[in-house]
UniProtKB/TrEMBL annotation:
The gene is mbtH. This is MbtH protein. Residues 3-47 form the MbtH-like domain. SUPFAM superfamilies: MbtH-like. The lineage of its organism: Bacteria, Bacillati, Actinomycetota, Actinomycetes, Micromonosporales. It comes from the Bacteria.
């Protein structure tokens, strides 16, 4: 395993991933400000990403619940 630093990245759908700090994230992904080892980043994601549904699906589900 490498000691390479990673960043936690997220997209507009509220999904999270890790990305090497020495590379720019892919289009549509943004750095969250958290960097560290891969394990540290994965631990952070586990704490903050508690609803794995994309934001658009969460919004549609909530909207459908408001109608019912």
């Amino acid at each position: 395993m490498t000691n390479k630093l990673h960043s936690v990245v997220h997209n507009d759908q509220g999904q999270y991933s890790t990305w090497p700090t020495d590379r720019e994230p892919p289009s549509g992904w943004h750095r969250s400000g958290v960097t560290g080892s891969l394990d540290d980043c994965l631990d952070h994601i586990e704490k903050v990403w508690t609803d794995l549904r994309p934001a658009s699906l969460r919004a549609a589900t909530e909207q459908a619940g408001d109608r019912g």
